[in-house]
Task: inverse folding
């Protein structure tokens, strides 16, 4: 009951952060759990405008240009982007598309976060922009058709820190190879896969699992260990402005939306929270808050970078909802005034830096 009340109280924040057409999510009020997932599947399937696989190339300049890091309108490739410094290489749209590659930086192509082999390269899954991203060909190839997971002993590390290696995700019986992206984009990838198993819920039983999809329990959608790590990443890496803008662009393109970007609290409402620890030591924080736990409405923030470079700071609750946005937070010092937030656990995120804090 408490979860449902919290979701109702915070639900309007998602609408403030994205250009959601009026009435788009009609029929979801009062729904939780798998009935909500089924309703969302119906909504994001209705009106879907199918495009060809090749059409994605002409859409990517609108959906995946770098307006957030170097802000140079090159391809925003989550497998090569360095959010805290110079990128190892950049691609201009329409140039250096694969092709053949042997090393990073040779060319870029399209990464299916849910591998094409699991649905036999069929449409519309193959060309669905909500889970198909432009990425470096070499790193895409190294990710192969592996699940996403935690890697402690990588056999391969990309230039921006993505890793391939044996699965070290807690609680998993799968010991094969997985791919772990950098922290900045873990939530992005999680919401891509959660979208996929919602959009294609009615078709999952005919797909291959690949140690990713739960084809025998299409309501859950993902095998349990994969779901748990993705729920953790969703909690640790909240929705960014990049994702909001991409979601809006995708809607104009193919007439459906990723509901877990519009309403990140629905992830918790459907699947609950991850049993893995949110303060996972493997997840870089790079910020500290004092006092913590917070006793009043003012916090002092310090980090391993000059905080004045960051123009926006955002505070999220533990269901992924943005509960406060602060513009130019560090121009006149390193203190932030909180908006009388209720007791609970929160994440402060600014640029690529983030940390958890408690309001007591």
Result:
């Amino acid at each position: 009951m408490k979860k449902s009340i919290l979701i109702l109280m915070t639900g309007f924040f998602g609408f403030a952060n994205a250009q959601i057409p009026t009435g788009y999510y009609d029929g979801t009020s009062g729904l939780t759990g798998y009935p909500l997932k089924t309703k969302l599947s119906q909504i994001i399937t209705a009106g879907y405008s199918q495009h060809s696989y090749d059409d994605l190339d002409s859409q990517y300049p609108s959906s995946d240009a770098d307006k957030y890091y170097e802000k140079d309108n090159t391809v925003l490739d989550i497998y090569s982007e360095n959010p805290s410094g110079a990128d190892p290489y950049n691609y201009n749209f329409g140039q250096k598309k694969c092709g053949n590659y042997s090393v990073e930086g040779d060319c870029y192509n399209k990464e299916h976060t849910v591998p094409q082999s699991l649905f036999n390269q069929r449409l519309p899954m193959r060309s669905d922009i909500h889970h198909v991203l432009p990425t470096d060909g070499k790193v895409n190839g190294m990710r192969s058709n592996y699940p996403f997971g935690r890697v402690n002993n990588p056999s391969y590390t990309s230039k921006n820190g993505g890793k391939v290696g044996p699965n070290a995700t807690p609680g998993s019986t799968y010991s094969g190879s997985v791919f772990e992206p950098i922290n900045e984009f873990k939530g992005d990838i999680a919401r891509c896969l959660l979208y996929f198993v919602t959009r294609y819920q009615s078709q999952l039983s005919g797909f291959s699992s690949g140690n990713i999809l739960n084809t025998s329990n299409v309501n859950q959608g993902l095998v349990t260990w994969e779901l748990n790590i993705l729920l953790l990443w969703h909690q640790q890496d909240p929705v960014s402005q990049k994702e909001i803008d991409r979601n809006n662009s995708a809607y104009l393109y193919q007439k459906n939306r990723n509901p877990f970007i519009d309403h990140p609290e629905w992830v918790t409402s459907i699947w609950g929270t991850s049993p893995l620890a949110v303060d996972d030591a493997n997840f870089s924080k790079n910020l500290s808050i004092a006092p913590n736990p917070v006793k009043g409405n003012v916090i002092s923030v310090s980090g391993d970078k000059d905080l004045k470079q960051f123009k926006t700071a955002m505070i999220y609750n533990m269901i992924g909802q943005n509960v406060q946005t602060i513009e130019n937070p560090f121009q006149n010092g390193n203190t932030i005034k909180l908006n009388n937030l209720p007791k609970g656990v929160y994440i402060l995120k600014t640029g690529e830096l983030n940390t958890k804090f408690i309001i007591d």
Notes: Residues 287-359 form a domain with the Immunoglobulin-like fold (CATH 2.60.40.3080). The chain has two domains: 33-271, 287-359. The first helix runs from residue 2 to 10.
